[in-house]
Design brief:
2 copies of one chain form a homodimer. The first copy, chain A, is α/β, with parallel strands linked by helices. The first copy, chain A, has a single domain (about 5-170), classed as 3-Layer(aba) Sandwich (Alpha/beta knot). Helices cover about 35% and strands about 25% of the residues of chain A. Chain A has 6 helices and 8 strands. The first copy, chain A, has helices spanning about 15-30, 40-55, 65-75, 90-95, 115-120, 130-145; strands at about 5-10, 35-40, 60-65, 75-85, 100-105, 120-125, 155-160, 170. In chain A, the strands form 2 sheets. A 6-stranded parallel beta sheet of chain A has the order 3-2-1-5-4-6, with helices on both faces. Chain A has a two-stranded antiparallel sheet with strand order 7-8. In chain A, helix 4 links the parallel strand 4 (about 75-85) and strand 5 (about 100-105). Chains A and B meet through helix 1, strand 4, helix 5 and helix 6 of A and helix 1, strand 4, helix 5 and helix 6 of B.
Chain lengths: ~170, ~170
């Protein structure tokens, strides 16, 4: 099973940090890559790639202007995370049972209504307003059943967990 | 058990959206309030309060310049979420067993080293770089064991979950 994330509607400057968090969460919580759509932002792509290079493992990062093409080219199923969707706790088993490729779509300030129709599942992590970053982390954790916490990363940088303070090894 | 979140080192403009996401996640995932430190940002506080007013329930939102005072005045224990800490999966039961007030501290670009010492637990949600927003959502979900998903909010706005599209009631 491959898991890609599609981040819609990126806006340079305004979304810089939120979109970066989306990419880092996708990577840290076990997705295989992130595709950004919206405004093309080379510095965003570069910053995520730099993290991948330093912290390890393969992780795809790219820009695609035509988000519809990404959805239509997907050879698996589409999960769209939205506060308007069905509760994750009711649908997660169904999604887990589908063991093929998944594309997880996250907004974006204004998600085109087509996305709701193109998605196989529109899934809400609570029906309250919060954050696509939180929704993505939460969903990946439920999908991967906590296995993402045990994922080993082999990078130049490695943290040795501490009760107090920081310990980081560089190789 | 009361749960408050302390968001350190807010910077106006640069952190506007990330700090807003922290507040919304705290609320949606079952915390009782958020205290912002760093630069005083009235428009941030106002935007969160407006969401609370429209979407319901009590949720404390305030600014406190002196973050050390917030930590020292806390009559419960302090959990600091940091990529340098001990794995959440090893410590969550211990934290859950402590059934009194909790203050969850999240960074901020540069967290003062004192925070690591003042915290009762320094907890990592993976030892990879990602997002305080994701860490907060993840931690609250583990702490509240999914009960946060069933929390009822009584506000002017209410979403009726849909398989496709959006349905929102306004009262």
């Amino acid at each position: 099973m491959g898991i890609l994330v599609l981040r819609l509607g990126h806006r340079i400057k305004r979304d810089e940090r939120v979109s970066a968090h989306c990419g880092l969460v996708a990577r840290a919580f076990g997705a295989d890559g992130i595709i950004y759509s919206g405004e093309k932002d080379d510095s965003l792509l570069k910053s995520i790639k730099k993290i991948v290079e330093r912290w390890g493992n393969k992780f795809e990062v790219r820009y695609e202007k035509n988000w519809k093409k990404v959805i239509k080219d997907c050879d698996g199923k589409i999960v769209h995370l939205t506060m308007y969707g069905l509760p994750v706790q009711e649908k997660i088993d169904e999604i887990k049972n589908y063991k093929e490729n998944l594309l997880i779509v996250i907004g974006g300030e204004k998600v085109p209504s087509e996305v709701y129709n193109l998605a196989d599942w529109n899934i809400a992590i609570t029906n309250q307003p919060h954050s696509e970053i939180a929704a993505l982390a939460f969903f990946l954790d439920k999908l991967l059943e906590g296995k993402e916490l045990k994922k080993e990363f082999k990078g130049k940088l490695k943290i040795i967990p501490q009760e107090k303070g920081k310990k980081i090894l560089e190789s």
